[in-house]
Amino acid sequence: MRPLLRPEPALSLALLRMVVAALMPLAPGFREGARIAAWAPERWIAPEGLGWFVRHVPINGTLAIAAQLIVAFAALCAIAGLRARLCFGVLAVAGFYLFAIAQLAGHVFHDNHLLWFCALLAASPCADVLAVDARRPLAAEGREYAVPLLAVRLLLGAIYFFPGLHKLLMSGLDWALSDNLRFQLYWKWAQYGGIPRLRLDAYPWLLHLGGLFVLAFELSFAPLVLFRRTRTAAAVAGLAFHLLSYLVFGLLFASLWLCYVALVDWRPLFRRLLPGAARWPADSEPARPVSRRQLRPTMIVGGLLLVGAVVQGARGQMRAYPFSCYPTFQWIAAREMPDLLIVAADDGGPPREVPHARDAAGRRTQRQWAEVWSLAGVTAPVDARRLGAYYAAVVPAPAPGASARRVTLFRVYRSVVPGDGGRIARPPVRLLEISD
């Protein structure tokens, strides 16, 4: 491992400190955690790894708001580099509380890496430069920075590698070379409630080429980031990958690619941009020996994080927290997409579909779709208590004096093919019947 632990710049670790701290209050878990904490507990469902959390940790809106305030304050201090390691310890704990609550709605927000990096930065000298507490020159480098940067790069590699591996194991090259990506597009269009002007489904060769690029990128990112000569190529390929994901599927995932700051030596750019920086000497301070004992905390934390990421990645377990495999999209997409259909009938009246979890334009967020799929028994067992709590939360109660209403919830499969209008393609499966 010694070649991988050559001295690395303190500046790269400091920039990662600022990026991760800034992302914590912006992550979906920060916002959703406080909202979901106010739900009826019957509506929650814990992913793998959070059963103990729901059973033993108090969850309510007041505590969640307090955690938000703590996260925001600690993030500001960490960005400034004021007691940064302590702040990242606080961010890891308070952030986990908020982010864990956000996972209880049936959708796992894959922002795990932010908590991983908080824990890693809490064990690392991340505020030696570009900080209020800075104690070394901006051009400083050392093996004490190489260990956390290596851990970050390996974790990023695991995030990408296992989705690519599971695509090949489950679907082979058909994942890229069949009609799969065309139907993946249709699923996203159906979820977003609209068809874009540029119909990429009309260019199957382009989809096939993009699919091959995705497989090649995901499988090669990990080895590319290990070596200085290829890290820039990995970063460029990663930015292209996420740009394409955003343009084609609407998936931005900025919290991941912004952490690419850990891949680059920023000192040449700073020398150009900062007045007087061009005069930085290469050896601006005497060499400082670093003992294995000094590196041990970072190595232990990084090793534990990597074990968790690799185990869950190898399992392909996407519905777990705080360690999970990131979305694989490994299956060949079908022509139909599951949905939860709510049908109400007043006494003497015809049955009618009750819209739910949609905005004024008829769209659902990714979190809403995931909750609907878990309620419908697609990604989680059917639970009558959850279905009842969901119905009570999202469907207005009948007005006083209104006639009795019988409500039935079904799992249905709607066509995603443009032009089919979301028609129900299979017989509905009855899940629950409620009388208001």
Radius of gyration computed on alpha carbons: 24 Å
Number of helices: 16
Order of adjacent strands in the largest pleated sheet: 4-3-5-6
Distance between the termini: 66 Å
In percent terms, what proportion of residues is strand? 5-15%
The average pLDDT is 91
Secondary-structure-derived class? alpha+beta
Topology as H/E string? Answer: EHHHHHHEHHHHHHHHEEHHEE
- Overall 3D form: globular
How many E-type strands?
6
For the sheet with most strands, the description reads: 4 strands, antiparallel
> Stretches where pLDDT falls below 50 for ≥5 residues?
none
Helix content: 40-55%
Task: Write a compact overview of the structure shown.
The chain is an alpha+beta fold and 436 residues long. The protein is built from 16 helices and six strands. The strands form two sheets. It has a four-stranded antiparallel sheet, with helices on one face. A two-stranded antiparallel ribbon has the order 1-2.
